[in-house]
Design brief:
165 residues, mainly alpha, Recoverin, domain 1, 2 strands, 61% helix
Length: 165
Amino acid sequence: MKFLIILAAFVTLAYAEHVCTDRAKFLEYRAVCASANGVTDEQIEHLKQYQFDLENESVYCHVKCIFEKMDLFKDGTFVTDNVLHQLHHGTKDLDDAAVRADLDSCVEEFKAEEDKCKFAFNVLKCFNGKNDKNLGYLKSSFVAHTEGEHEHAHVHDHAHAHHHH
């Protein structure tokens, strides 16, 4: 019982502290993770096109590294609340229940995978396979403004003043 209370407190805390990753941060994380894992530009291009045909440990770990930096992957698994929080950043009318169900079933499917890099990659691949919009939500979340204004997306000069730290 005590464990559950601590867990509940932790989940609430984690969600409250989760800061959505914007495009600049994402590109920074991607560059850091790519060089840390020896990932090539060609491999990054494949991932950008949602081509998960790369059976390669460095690619697996690159994916996990990015998710860890985004606070979407902790202690060997995905933090579902943080994933939803991130996706909401770009998609206001997100179907939480559907996305959560997709992610949970993918996590469940691969939970026996000991290799955490491979686990992260396979869950991502599975998540994309459940609904081809899922990764579109992730992509949208990087370009969205904190205020959710899409019509002023080309105005950059004051956009950074609104960031909450």
